[in-house]
Structures are given as structure tokens and as C-alpha cells.
Amino acid sequence: MRILGIDYGDARVGFAVCDKSEILASGLHTVKVKGMTEAAEAAVKIAVDEGAEMIVVGMPLNMDGTRGERAEKTEVFCSMLRDRINLTVETMDERRTTVSAHNIMIENGVKRGKKKALVDTISAEIILQTFIDKRRNQAN
């Protein structure tokens, strides 16, 4: 199944997709947005363009696993997606994905100026890869 992974943010939204076999997540790009409505519209367009059959959005839980203001905002975003497209929209714990994304960029020698543009795409890729790995492990 082709799945679209999303790292939702107020100003930037990162996107990734996986292959139909759900083996490998690949980053697409980051879109700059002005608000949740614009972010939802961009996500729907990318989902359609990429032939997505499901959407997974990173859920920014607090480090203790509770939901804070940011998680509530992300839930509203997910609701907007569900209202706009007839696909299953699930969430995936995204704690520490930004830290992991920064570590990946450091390991790969990404220059400081390019990090801001890449961090959300890499975070979306990590969220989606974690989700498909979890699905595969649950199926076995």
C-alpha cells in the first residue's frame, strides 16, 4: 500500500511516501504553509498526486507520552484531512524524530543552510518508516 507520511508544522510540512510493498520510506519535500487550512490542502494534493492509499501524521506527544497543545493542534489537522479526502488518516508517535533528523544530517555532512529545508522532510521519512516497520512487525 502506498502511504503518505506527514510531519505537520505551523510554517512547514514535511512529506514522505513509501513503496507499495511498504518496505522503504522516501522523503519527498517540505512545503511552506500559512496556516492549517493551507497545510491540509497541500497534503491532500500531494496524497492524490502520489497515489496514496493511507496517510500517517506524526503525533507530537510530550516526552511522558501525554498530549499537549501541539498534539491537540495536530489532531485538528488530521480531522481536516479526513474531511477533505477519503483515506484512512492515522497518527504515529513522533517523539525525537527532529533530533534523529538532525543527527542524520550531521552524519551526512549537510551544510547548516540546508538543514532547515530538509529537517521536516527527513522527519516525515522517519515517521513513515517507523509506521511501516511497526505494521510489518505486527503482521509477523
Number of structural units classed as domains: 1
Q: Return the CATH class.
A: Alpha Beta
Instruction: Quickly give the CATH architecture.
Output: 2-Layer Sandwich
**What is the CA-CA span between the terminal residues?**
17 Å
Concise summary:
The chain has a single domain (3-139), classed as 2-Layer Sandwich (Nucleotidyltransferase, domain 5), CATH 3.30.420.140.
Describe the structure.
The mean pLDDT is 90. Strands 3-2-1-4-5 form a five-stranded mixed β-sheet, sandwiched between helices. β1 and β2 form a beta hairpin. The chain has a single domain, classed as 2-Layer Sandwich (Nucleotidyltransferase, domain 5). By secondary structure, it is α/β, with parallel strands linked by helices. α1 packs across α2 and α3 crosses α4. It has four helices and five strands.
Describe the secondary structure blueprint for this structure.
Layout: E1 3-7, E2 12-18, E3 25-32, H1 36-50, E4 54-59, H2 69-84, E5 88-93, H3 97-107, H4 112-139
Parallel strand pairs: 1-4, 4-5
Antiparallel strand pairs: 1-2, 2-3
Helix pairs in contact: 1-2, 3-4
